[in-house]
């Protein structure tokens, strides 16, 4: 098992050096972002740019604000009561924190995969068709095609093609998570946010999802929050290290893991805390 | 990666179908829903204003002091007398008897279910309690009149056909499940660690229950009793069928009585015309009844809110 | 010197254990009391009423002669009542529950509505009768119609439905809502397509139980003035009618012994109807119990 993981990670690393040489268009530009939960200052002066067709990993100990930052990128953070923000997050050159920015529009472009697989209590087909349907696409032929394409995209088509109309809860945890990725792909987002997508999965399912992430970046920009440093090292192009609501360091993944410039980063990745 | 060549770009299709119109409609939904929520407030206002206005009309014909101090409720007599005390006393008699039945039995049931019973027993008993709580009151009334009263009369021959004892007992049976299930909730919510602490010192289950669990759950239990007694005060059909229609100020439970609710029923089924003093009197009685239950409900809420603050 | 004399502790132990056992027995006896009462009640009613429960009983209208008395008008009337109460109460209850759980902000108005609903649940049913009499029967001039009675009953069971629907909506996991919002769904889309389908079994179960309460209630209808002796069926919601509990009340309060047996037969019909409704509720609860 470990051997496989190592080998894949080596392969990915080679890939990575090529990628980071290209200068990529920026998807998100965050500047001076602050966020408070009531009195608690959860994000402090965040400055972070996200690049197109890359996997950006966000690491850090629990409660460091990494999930909060991710959820700010599609404004899901607003579902928590008593949240205030200041500063700017530009998505494709428009400030999404501007109240006139429709969250529905934003979330149509920015898909999200959650920590725990959360399929709807509906059939596999209905789960994937949900997104297109709410956006007004009802043509059966189109929907069929979207469902197949998305399930293929999430590398789960072969496992479920004979039982598309079974309840999604019959799937294993790993399959459910890939179904959730397929559901997210169905609206053809631009960016995919992943909030510790493998934390509830077994090692084999984790590997499958990691491989999938690698394939997906060909078409999508991916931001992944993870508490698993090896995972960040294996799959990401860039890594940001968060601590106590601040970005301590943000750089190419290789640089972060081989020559971290901040002592705290080094302490964290060498397992001295967190 | 093998992604099928897309014939349709979903992203573009979604862009075309921008949901402007839908979001417009969506803005009105909270207002529409808040209108339905307002119905419950309107209901309360309706109740309060109905009672107040018609009661005021009643007090134009009958003095307030007569209503509260006169010792006779004889609305149908030639020289009518509207002293509400006999009706209140009738209601209190029923409530007291019901409490004597329901509090010990309901509490014992709650203790048994939460502290002693196995999961299996609970699964049998709880649905039975639910059924008992769901029996229509008219059925209980029938039961009181045709079974409980005759049985009691064979034991106490002096008992009248209509009396306070029989409906009181049956109202007690009716509210027992309520006390049992609400008190059980209060007992179950006492943290397990408190029980374990006492058991580890060598206490018997009974000692743990009486000295640790009951005191910890006391506000929840008291709230459940207050709520159940408020239900007893408002109970109508059992007392109408088996209690009689003779308002009186004595403390005897073996003779015919009349409760506030039973009086309202008597007038409603009788031929008192719209606009007569008798017609308005049911609102004054209703108002008295409403105030009684309102105070008890608020009291129960106050007590149970306190319990939530404790742990 | 030891502070605790072990011999005294040991001596007291058997008594404490015996006391524990005795009280446990008493608690158990109290618990079986309910079972006992239910048993007697059902047996009495069954023994008394079963003799009158024949086909004619369902075919006949009320009558002065016990052997000819039937339940037709009351049974059909109870169904009419349900036809009014079910949609009105469900619509209002569900709307209120959605508003409170999904839209309402935490402010004084919301907590006022909540306080109001829990108080409304504690108002005696006969008071709702006074409300119905004043507002629906007199002010809106609906007279003693199916509609007036149905609206009164709808308000009576409304708090029950609201609370049941609130609980059902609250039990839908947050993750499902987040998944839907995450795809760009609006709040209303999320409610209609994700929350309500997941909550519907709980809502239905609660509503059926509330409806069965409306079917068994007597007091508000007595006050509203629904007649107890009627020999025709309502043609629409503006006609007058009677219901099972009213008919049973009427028979119970007759002096003749035979009518008590007729009342028992009527109670059997009412209980069967309620058991039927409750079984549907239990069936829905078990069949659609979702595992999240």
From TrEMBL, chain C:
Similarity field: Belongs to the binding-protein-dependent transport system permease family. CysTW subfamily.
Highest taxon of the lineage: Bacteria
Source organism (scientific name): Peribacillus asahii
Domain ABC transmembrane type-1: 75-280
Keyword Cell membrane: yes
GO molecular function list: phosphate transmembrane transporter activity
Compartment(s) where it occurs, according to its Swiss-Prot or TrEMBL record: Cell membrane
Keyword line: Cell membrane, Membrane, Transmembrane, Transmembrane helix, Transport
Protein name per UniProt: Phosphate transport system permease protein PstA
SUPFAM superfamilies, per database record: MetI-like
PANTHER family according to UniProt: PHOSPHATE TRANSPORT SYSTEM PERMEASE PROTEIN PSTA, PHOSPHATE TRANSPORT SYSTEM PERMEASE PROTEIN PSTA-RELATED
Record's bilayer topology term: Multi-pass membrane protein
TM stretches of this protein: 21-46, 73-100, 120-141, 147-169, 190-212, 259-284
GO biological process, one term: phosphate ion transmembrane transport
Lineage, uppermost ranks: Bacteria, Bacillati, Bacillota, Bacilli, Bacillales
């Amino acid at each position: 098992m470990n051997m496989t993981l190592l080998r894949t990670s080596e392969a990915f690393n080679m890939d990575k050096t090529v990628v980071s040489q290209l200068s990529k268009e920026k998807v998100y530009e965050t500047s001076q972002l602050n966020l408070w939960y009531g009195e608690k200052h959860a994000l402090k002066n965040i400055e972070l740019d996200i690049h197109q067709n890359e996997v950006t990993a966000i690491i850090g100990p629990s409660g460091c604000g990494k999930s909060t930052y991710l959820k700010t990128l599609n404004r899901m953070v607003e579902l928590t009561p008593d949240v205030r923000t200041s500063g700017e997050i530009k998505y494709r050159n428009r400030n999404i924190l501007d109240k006139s920015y429709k969250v529905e529009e934003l979330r149509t472009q920015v898909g999200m995969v959650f920590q725990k697989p959360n399929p709807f209590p509906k059939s596999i087909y209905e789960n994937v068709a949900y997104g297109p349907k709410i956006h007004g696409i009802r043509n059966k032929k189109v929907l069929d095609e979207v469902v197949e394409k998305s399930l293929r995209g999430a590398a789960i088509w072969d496992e479920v093609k004979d039982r598309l109309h079974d309840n999604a809860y019959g799937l294993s945890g790993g399959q459910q998570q890939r179904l959730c990725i397929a559901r997210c792909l169905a609206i053809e987002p631009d960016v995919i946010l992943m909030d510790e997508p493998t934390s509830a999965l077994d090692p084999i399912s984790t590997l499958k999802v990691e491989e999938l992430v690698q394939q997906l970046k060909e078409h999508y920009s991916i931001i992944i929050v993870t508490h698993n440093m090896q995972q960040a090292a294996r799959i990401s192009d860039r890594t940001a290290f968060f601590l106590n609501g601040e970005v301590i360091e943000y750089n190419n993944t290789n640089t972060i893991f081989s020559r971290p410039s901040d002592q705290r980063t080094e302490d964290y990745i060498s397992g001295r805390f967190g | 990666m093998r992604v099928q060549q897309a014939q349709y770009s979903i992203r573009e299709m979604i862009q075309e179908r921008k949901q402007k119109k839908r979001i417009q409609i969506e803005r009105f939904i909270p207002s529409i829903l808040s209108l339905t929520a307002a119905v419950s407030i309107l209901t309360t206002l309706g109740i309060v204003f109905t009672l107040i206005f018609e009661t005021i009309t009643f007090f134009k014909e009958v003095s307030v002091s007569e209503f509260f101090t006169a010792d006779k409720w004889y609305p149908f007599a030639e020289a009518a007398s509207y002293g509400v005390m006999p009706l209140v006393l009738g209601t209190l008699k029923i409530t007291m008897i019901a409490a004597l039945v329901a509090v010990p039995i309901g509490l014992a049931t709650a203790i048994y279910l939460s502290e002693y019973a196995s999961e299996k027993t609970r699964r049998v008993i709880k649905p039975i309690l639910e059924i008992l709580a769901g029996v229509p009151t008219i059925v209980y009334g029938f039961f009181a009149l045709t079974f409980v009263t005759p049985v009691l009369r064979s034991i106490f021959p002096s008992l009248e056909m209509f009396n306070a004892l029989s409906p009181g007992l049956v109202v007690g049976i009716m509210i027992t499940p309520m006390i049992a299930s609400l008190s059980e909730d209060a007992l179950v919510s006492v943290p397990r660690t408190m029980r374990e602490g006492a058991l580890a010192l060598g206490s018997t289950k009974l000692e743990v229950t009486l000295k640790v669990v009951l005191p910890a759950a006391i506000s929840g239990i008291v709230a459940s009793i207050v709520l159940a007694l408020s239900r007893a005060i408002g109970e109508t059909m059992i007392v109408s069928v088996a209690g009689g229609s003779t308002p009186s100020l004595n403390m005897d439970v073996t003779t015919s009585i009349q409760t506030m609710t039973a009086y309202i029923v008597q007038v409603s089924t009788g031929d008192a015309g719209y606009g007569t003093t008798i017609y308005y009197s049911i609102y004054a009685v209703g108002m008295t009844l409403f105030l009684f239950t309102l105070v008890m409900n608020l009291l129960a809420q106050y007590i149970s809110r306190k319990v939530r603050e404790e742990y | 010197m030891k502070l605790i004399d072990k011999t005294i502790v040991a001596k007291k132990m058997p008594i404490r254990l015996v006391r524990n056992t005795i009280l446990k027995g008493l608690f158990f006896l109290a618990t079986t009391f309910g079972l006992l009462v239910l048993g007697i009640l059902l047996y009495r009613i069954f023994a008394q009423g079963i003799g009158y429960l024949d086909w004619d009983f369902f075919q006949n209208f009320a009558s002065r002669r016990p052997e000819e008395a039937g339940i037709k008008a009351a049974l059909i009337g109870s169904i009419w009542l349900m036809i009014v109460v079910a949609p009105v109460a469900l619509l209002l209850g569900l709307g209120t529950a959605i508003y409170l759980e999904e839209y309402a902000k935490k402010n004084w108005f919301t907590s006022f509505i909540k306080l109001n609903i829990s108080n409304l649940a504690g108002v005696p049913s006969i008071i709702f009768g006074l409300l119905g009499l004043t507002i629906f029967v007199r002010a809106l001039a609906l007279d003693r119609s199916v509609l007036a009675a149905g609206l009164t009953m709808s308000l009576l069971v409304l708090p029950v439905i609201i609370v049941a629907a609130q609980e059902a909506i609250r039990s839908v996991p947050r993750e499902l809502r987040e998944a839907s919002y995450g795809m760009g769904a609006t709040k209303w889309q999320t409610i209609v397509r994700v929350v309500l389908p997941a909550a519907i079994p709980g809502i239905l179960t609660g509503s059926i139980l509330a409806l069965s309460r409306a079917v068994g209630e007597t007091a508000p209808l007595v006050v509203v003035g629904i007649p107890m002796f009627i020999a025709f069926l309502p043609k629409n919601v503006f006609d007058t009618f009677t219901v099972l509990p009213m008919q049973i009340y009427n028979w119970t309060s007759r002096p003749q012994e035979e009518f008590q047996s007729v009342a028992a037969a009527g109670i059997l019909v009412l209980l069967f109807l309620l058991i039927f409704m409750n079984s549907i509720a239990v069936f829905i609860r078990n069949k659609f119990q979702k595992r999240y």
